[in-house]
Write a structure and sequence with these properties.
mainly beta, Protocatechuate 3,4-Dioxygenase, subunit A, Immunoglobulin-like, 2 domains, 5-stranded mixed beta sheet, 3 helices, binds fe (ii) ion
Amino acid sequence: MKYKNSRRKFLRNTSLSLLSIAAFPSVVNSATSKKNDTKDSCDETTLDAYGQGPFYTANAPLIQNNQLANINESGERIIISGQVYNLDCSEAIPNTEIDVWHANNLGEYDNFGYNLRGKTMSNSQGYYIFESIKPGLYLNGSTYRPSHIHFKITPPGFNTLITQLYFENDPYIPTDAAASITSGQYDATNRIIPLTQNTSGDLEGTWDIIINGDGIPIVGMNNLHLSKGMIYNAYPNPFVDEIEINYGVFQKGNVKISVHDINGQMVATLNQKMLEPEKYQIVWRPHIDLPKGHYFISIVMNDMQVHYIKVLKQ
Ligand SMILES: [Fe+2]
């Protein structure tokens, strides 16, 4: 189980520049041989043992321009994004309400207004993103709670999942009664995500949400994509006027690289052709008027999205 979890993290977090090509064949083999246990390798997002906690306020406003924290808010800027999937990761779920709240840099909640509280929706491809500040610490009894973000996640027509997201290497995770749980219904393992600093100095974290709901088919997510193809990296990221996309095709097929904006609009389709198994590279030079912001670059094989990465245009 541990092995599968870490493999899934590896797949989804897409720090693939670290990936050695030599390691690749064994990964492909193990993914292929485990084809049938998709449920285990696509773990449902768990509840947090602390539930919603004492600081939830209903009816938070919609997050504007993906900015949960005002630009003047103190603290390290943090960008959280991901994709919402159904329980077997065969579908991405659009229009999922993601209600977020967290403490400020000093570990205090706004219990009178809606600062650092807001709702966003997953887009037509199931993606969501918001920018905020890294939450501060606050005492819970005699120990600090680790830095965390609260979530209420509601796919259209399905139940709400209430949970919390934590960050790797937080020294207060081992002593936290909720974040330290590593098995069972409150297992926090997949809710502790790495943060990496981008060249703008912002912290970036990727968290995919797996929840009961109905969506649009994306056959080939979970492990299966490693047997078809993947995007290794895109460079530079963030980029200004052009970005080089390195990707691999593992099975002969009709391949395209497509780019969607955060609203789910396709902004580019690159290189649609029948490709043999090989490593490929393509340079995307978007129109000069393309707005700054986050974009999702995905590899689509035979009309199925098999992998994506997130990039930032500056
Ligand atoms: Fe909290």
